[in-house]
Amino acid sequence: MDDNIEKIRAAPRPTNKTQVRSFIGLAGYYREYIPHYSTIASPLTDLTRRENQRKSNGRNHRRRRTPA
Q1: What are the tens digits of pLDDT across the range 34-45?
Q2: Is the pTM of this model over 0.85?
Q3: 6 and 65 in contact (C-beta within 8 Å)?
Q4: pLDDT above 90 coverage of the chain, percent
Q5: Rounded Cα gap, residues 16 and 47, in angstroms
Q6: Phi first, then psi: what are they for 34, rounded to 5°?
Q7: Where does the chain cross the membrane (predicted)?
Q8: Of 3, 51, 54, 55, whose CB neighbour count within 10 A is largest?
Q9: How many angstroms separate the CA atoms of 14 and 17, rounded?
Q10: Whether the predicted pLDDT of 7 surpasses 90
């Protein structure tokens, strides 16, 4: 379990939709231990939707970070 937590902490910022999906999958493994996971992950999930593909303008990476 600790190895996966370190992978999440050390993961680089995703730069494309595939990488965002991969990160969501990795973090989602621990969703039962993260209160309000769906609320926290919602901005990332929104980035994977087709209609938002062109709307990303760099603002999303500045959202509030939560402690891991």
Answers
A1: 999 999 999 999
A2: no
A3: no
A4: 51
A5: 9
A6: -110, 110
A7: none
A8: 55
A9: 8
A10: no
